[in-house]
Design goal:
Largest sheet: 7 strands, mixed
CATH class: Alpha Beta
Number of helices: 7
CATH superfamily: Endonuclease Chain A
Distance between the termini: 40 Å
Order of helices and strands: HHEHEHEHHEEEEH
Number of strands: 7
Strand content: 15-25%
Radius of gyration: 18 Å
Low-confidence stretches: 1-37
Structural class: alpha/beta
């Protein structure tokens, strides 16, 4: 793992005599599922822990009060999902929606943990049109988590937006990010807004989405 938290994949090909062959992305992805589909990898846990600690340091003295907006520009060392974790440190959520083009198995597992722990009561997911076909196993895993927790809807459409929005007993919020809900070691921007209006704006739009998957 480098300083930006990128998970290297050179260990995945277990055939020592295959050094001269290029491992195709699909092969990497399929092998990766078998190893970590339902478990957090150590590298993933450490990277996200660093991500969350970085956010805590940045936001230590910033009040999460109605009308406040907090803007971030990060150098690839903070995960998109860690912004939601920051909200969950302040309050449990009665409702949350998320929108992303794609996501990793560990991210789905994190949502599953939050649902089982009661940190999120109801959850809606909005994913890109490529997700069910290009990320078949992640999509099946996501559907399994939603079915097991009876938590909300999954909608598939021509989507490239990266949004979280929700509310708990303390406040409503919206999170806008340039990053998908998976590792992306690049400069990204994000904004957390504490406001009921921004939640209602996103909730109304996504409620109107008609999913490709029925």
């Amino acid at each position: 793992m480098n300083d930006w938290g990128e998970i290297k994949t050179d260990w995945i090909d277990s055939e020592e005599n295959n050094k001269n062959k290029k491992v195709k992305e699909k092969t990497i992805r399929d092998h990766h599922y078998k190893e970590v589909s339902y478990f957090h990898s150590t590298k993933h846990v450490y990277r996200r822990a660093f991500s969350e600690l970085s956010l805590l340091d940045l936001c230590e003295n910033i009040p999460f009060e109605n009308g406040n907006s907090i803007h971030f520009l990060t150098a690839g060392n903070i995960d998109s999902l860690s912004f939601l974790k920051l909200i969950l440190r302040k309050q449990h959520l009665d409702y949350c929606l998320f929108s992303t083009w794609c996501m990793a198995p560990e991210d789905i597992l994190q949502f599953n943990t939050w649902l089982k722990e009661g940190k999120i009561n109801k959850l809606d997911a909005y994913v890109g049109e490529i997700f069910p076909t290009t990320y078949k196993k992640e999509f099946e895993f996501l559907k399994e988590v939603f079915e097991n927790n009876k938590c909300g809807r999954i909608a598939v459409f021509k989507n490239h937006s990266k949004i979280y929005a929700g509310y708990g007993s303390g406040f409503y919020f919206g999170i806008e990010s340039s990053a998908n809900i998976n590792t992306n070691p690049r400069t990204e921007n994000a904004c957390i807004t504490i406001d009921k209006g921004i939640f209602e704006f996103y909730k109304e739009y996504f409620d109107g989405i008609k999913s490709f998957e029925q």
